[in-house]
Amino acid sequence: VTLDGKNGTWKGSGSGDAASFVYAAKWVPAPNSLIVQQFRRPVYASLAHGMDQPNTSPGTPPLLPRVALERRAMEVRTLRAALLAGRPDGLINKADLYAQVTIGNQTFVEATQQGRDEIQPAWLSVGFVPETEAVIPVRYEMFDEAGPLKLPVTIDVGPRAGLTFATFKLAVRGHALAGDLNGVHDAKTNAAILRGGGGDQYPASVTLYVTVRELQTHSAP
What we know:
Layout: H1 34-40, H2 42-45, E1 71-83, E2 97-103, E3 106-109, E4 118-119, E5 123-130, E6 135-144, E7 153-155, E8 166-171, E9 176-179, E10 183-184, E11 192-195, E12 204-214
Antiparallel strand pairs: 1-4, 1-5, 1-12, 2-3, 2-6, 6-7, 6-8, 8-9, 9-10, 11-12
């Protein structure tokens, strides 16, 4: 929603559209992320104990155990997306594109870019994957948020006929991709291009790269 001149307060820059805010309802019951789960555990609730009471002086903060996530951070960064042919709204309205990226078993919905057929959003999905897994699956999908009757329309980013999404796997060691994307594409300088094809409606191209990083442990000062 647009507030105080900011286009996209609830879902990021470019997503300001009051009518589409109703889609937020589908994320409310969604499972919490790993980070949210950590901070909602009772031990972390002790940090805020008494803060909801008036005239309460802060006490000595409790000692908290170190969080052992045992995870790696996997990144799927979208640098550019563009429709190649057709618009779900016909020839009048430009597209309102957004991506849906599934890393392992975590799904991320990126900020809608309102009224543009070609965008450079630098979307970034970060999934925390178990450090014991050597190969991580990814599913990449794209939609137009404001299709006919304000219903999302699928945009084709899959290179295979009959499939509008792309799937590939990242090998943690070496960062090689296999599937609908192949080879090492782990930085802006060697980004890959997904291109919808096979005769499916509303094809688009997507420029992206995929990498994985070790989480660093820092000692308290």
